[in-house]
Amino acid sequence: MIPPEVLRKVRRIEILTGRLVSETFAGEYQSIFKGRGMEFAEVREYSVGDDIRTIDWNVTARTGHPFVRQYTEERELTVVIACDLSGSQFFGSSKQLKNEIAAELSAVLAFCALQNHDKVGLFLFTEGVEEYVPPKKGRKHILHLIRDVLAFKPAKTGTKIGPTLDTINRVLKRGCILFLISDFRDEGFETPLRLTALKHDVIPIVITDPREEKLPAFGALIELEDPETGKSVLVDAGRRAGLASYEKAERERAARLDSIFKKSGLVPIRVGTDKSYIDPVVQFFRMRAMRMRR
Question: CATH 3.40.50.410 residue ranges in the chain?
């Protein structure tokens, strides 16, 4: 039984993201995610100027007249959303929690795919894949995916991106567009990410919160608890050196993550809980479209 508050959230997200897709994202999405090949459509009689390489010799021999094969772009794609629902995703010091941002982003991407007649699948993961919804089409299916992201109760709290990607690569036999949504607070996933990027079109979406990057000066010792491990650490927020040490560690972590993406040839989308995700997503789509035209 789905709680009424979850159903209300699903409906709110459908209304919000449906409008965003139709007004903002649909054209951007279609411009960069094109079909992956050409599929046969029909044959017609040869006309002067047609490429002779397209002549269908079997039909030509049967009819005694030259016929050419016509093709159309294979439009249908498979979009897969891999969404991190580990303990750190249920945190937010600003407008929304990170998992709420993840749900809205998942909805935007899914509705973009729906408008372009693409299939959409979903992986929910923590220390590994906890739920998999195979790719399908249709509004009902999309609403099911959004509901799952909002209502899912993870069995574990940690984040293990590497084993998750290994599972995704085993399950998905054909290449797809893979949106990997996480705060990426994990280590040791460099090789699985690089291998995944060789098989799939991987787009990392990094969700951050300002309180994770910079602590306010409370003027006293504060205890920070890791929601994934339950471990606590004391930070002296009354001393500049204590705050500087914390912020340095966060900058170094972010730099390592940038290096991992760069080595895998990936360009991430970065969104925060304190700002709208619209601009970063649109900017990414437009930058990618520009690179494709070069």
Answer: 4-33+76-293
Nearest to 123 by CA among 189, 175, 184, 171: 171
Choosing among 3.30.390.10, 3.40.50.410, 3.55.50.30, 3.40.1190.10, the CATH entry for 4-33+76-293 is 3.40.50.410
Cβ contacts of residue 273 below 8 Å, gap of 6+?
Answer: 92, 93, 94, 95, 96, 97, 98, 101, 207, 208, 209, 210
| DSSP code, position 270 | E
* Amino acid identity for residue 74 in this structure: E
| Residue 15 φ/ψ, nearest 5 degrees | -65, -50
- Look at residues 238, 243, 233, 240 and name the one whose alpha carbon lies nearest to residue 221: 238
- pTM for the whole structure: 0.82
What are the CA-CA distances from residue 219 to residues 241, 245, 248 (Å)? 12, 16, 19
Compare 72 and 206 and report the one with higher pLDDT.
Answer: 206
Core vs surface per residue 218-242: b (16+ CB within 10 A) or e: eeeeeeeeeebeeeeeebbbeeeeb
Per-residue model confidence as pLDDT tens digits over 197-249: 999 999 999 999 998 888 776 656 777 777 888 788 777 666 777 678 888 98
